[in-house]
Amino acid sequence: MLKFSFSIALFAHVSAHQNFHQFWVNDESPGYQVGIRMPPSNNPVTDVTSNDIVCNVGGTDGTGVTTVAAKAGDTIKVQWDSSTHPGPITHMLYGPVGSAASTSGIGAGWFKIDEQDYVDGKWANEVMEAINMTHNFALPPNLKSGEYLLRSEMLALHGSQTLGGAQFYIGCAQLSITGPGGDCSPQISLPGAYNADDSDIYIPDFYYGFDPTTYKAPGGEIATCS
User: Fold this and answer.
1) Residue 113 lies in a domain
2) What is the pLDDT of residue 151?
3) Domain ranges, residue 96
4) Is residue 55 classed as helix, strand or coil in its secondary structure?
5) Are 62 and 68 spatial neighbours (Cβ–Cβ below 8 Å)?
6) 12 burial type by CB count under 10 A (0-12 exposed, 13-18 middle, 19+ buried)
7) Could you say which DSSP state residue 213 is in?
8) What pLDDT shows up at residue 198?
9) Does 216 map to a domain?
10) 102-119 burial string, b = 16+ CB within 10 Å, else e?
11) Cα separations (Å) of 182 from 91, 144, 205?
12) What are phi and psi of 52, to 5 degrees?
């Protein structure tokens, strides 16, 4: 079992908050904060039952946000603010819909396409720190053509030993994806899929005996699209 020291825990508590600021499709970016529903601050969401868990505070309206073109199977790179918060990064899609800009994302239809937890002795945030706070993953090769919300979530677990203490940092991008077709499952609802007392959100022994190699991020399994 891996044990975290009190000093590490204390440092994590006072470190900076964060936002998702930029992404690339096959190494081409639409620009800094372009295509992303930017929240009003870099504060976390802690109430998993609120609509803020979907695309952050004020994130249910994408009016005025650019919808960026992509193809099924394309490589996506995301970039976040620097973070010392230990925890995973996950990505989900919602769609296809007729208009990403007018879609709130509230309710059923989300499916996970990417997850990085604790690998080779490092949480996802630490791995990202070594590569300019970036993370790469591929869109599923079998997606229906249409517009989608891409949800990027970094979950900070430094406060997870307290019920309601886990911190969700969330950003949603808008994509117009061209694909050959396909159905993706399993799917989840947001809010609804996360509960404050879930074992992947509330971890009372996080710094004192918890084995991070057993951890799986919230949101279920990575979807199969076929």
Assistant:
1) yes
2) 99
3) 6-207
4) helix
5) no
6) buried
7) G
8) 98
9) no
10) ebebbeebbbbbbbbbbe
11) 18, 6, 41
12) -65, -20
User: b or e along 153-187 (b: 16 or more beta carbons within 10 Å of the residue's beta carbon)?
Assistant: bbbbbbbbbeeebbbbbbbbbbbbbebeeeebeeb
Q: What is the pTM of this model?
A: 0.93
Compute the C-alpha angle 223/224/225, nearest 5°. 110
- Confirm whether 221 is domain-assigned: no
Residue 123 CB-half CA count within 13 A: 23
* Under 8 Å between Cβ of 100 and 73: no
The two structure tokens encoding residue 20 = 């998702």
Q: CA 126, CA 86: separation in Å to the nearest integer? A: 7
Tokens 């900076």 belong to residue: 16
Q: What is the dihedral of CA 64, 105, 140, 120, to 10 degrees?
A: 100
Tokens of 173: 């991008």
- Tokens at 51, concatenated: 């609509």
Residue in the block written with tokens 């509330």: 202
Q: State the 10-residue block means of pLDDT for the chain, 226 residues long.
A: 38 65 98 98 98 98 98 98 96 98 98 98 98 98 98 98 98 98 98 98 96 98 97
Contact by Cβ (8 Å): 34, 62: no
**pLDDT score of 105:** 98
Report the domain count for the chain: 1
163 belongs to a structural domain: yes
Element (H, E) at 170: strand 167-178
Report the CATH number at residue 185: 2.70.50.70
